[in-house]
Write a structure and sequence with these properties.
With about 190 residues, the chain is mostly helical. The chain has one domain. It is about 90% helix and about 0% strand. The protein is elongated and about 95 Å long.
């Protein structure tokens, strides 16, 4: 094997290992963020429960105790919405990182194929038609990749807008429910 071919093979192996390392880091960092998010949410929920219980024990009368129940609902809904919003943000960030990694790999693959086709067309006499066909297929594949990538980003944007709208609607619904006058039982 000539030295240049060996060097090229080593470079490709190093590139593959680098990609694997980056993929593993994205996965581990995402897992760590999710674990921290879960622990933070559990800690916040426990603190809120303790505070609510202390307020309930300090209540002076049934009316004050009942008003505590309704005042406790809004922070719980907001914490729940914040929790799911945080998970969504972690997921979106990881998805973006994976897409960037995939795009980088796609670019590297295109460069490798292009240089291989250039080498082949220079070393082979009647290869123009075959090279043109392969380049056309690559162009079509790249176009499909770009369209798929654009679609994935649009779906992510729609999902983001839906999560924001659902969160806002839920918090508004709790606000309006708490501000509505209560009917007294007869």
């Amino acid at each position: 094997m000539p030295q240049s071919a060996f060097d090229s093979l080593v470079a490709k192996q190093n590139s593959a290992l680098d990609t694997l390392f980056r993929f593993s880091n994205i996965s581990l960092n995402t897992t760590e963020k999710i674990a921290r998010h879960h622990l933070s949410a559990a800690r916040n929920a426990l603190d809120a429960q303790l505070e609510h219980l202390q307020s309930a024990l300090a209540a002076k009368g049934l009316n004050q105790l009942l008003s505590l129940g309704t005042s406790f609902a809004k922070p719980q809904v907001e914490q729940g919405a914040s929790y799911y919003r945080g998970l969504h943000d972690i997921h979106t960030s990881a998805q973006d990182d994976y897409i960037k990694l995939f795009e980088h790999g796609h670019e590297e693959l295109n460069k490798s194929i292009s240089s291989l086709l250039d080498w082949y067309s220079q070393s082979s006499g009647n290869s123009d038609l075959a090279v043109a066909a392969v380049k056309s297929a690559i162009s079509a594949a790249n176009s499909a990749f770009e369209n798929a990538n654009k679609t994935v980003r649009q779906v992510a944007n729609i999902t983001e807008a839906s999560v924001n709208a659902a969160t806002s609607a839920t918090v508004r619904a709790v606000d309006s429910d708490q501000s509505a006058p209560r009917k007294k039982a007869a």
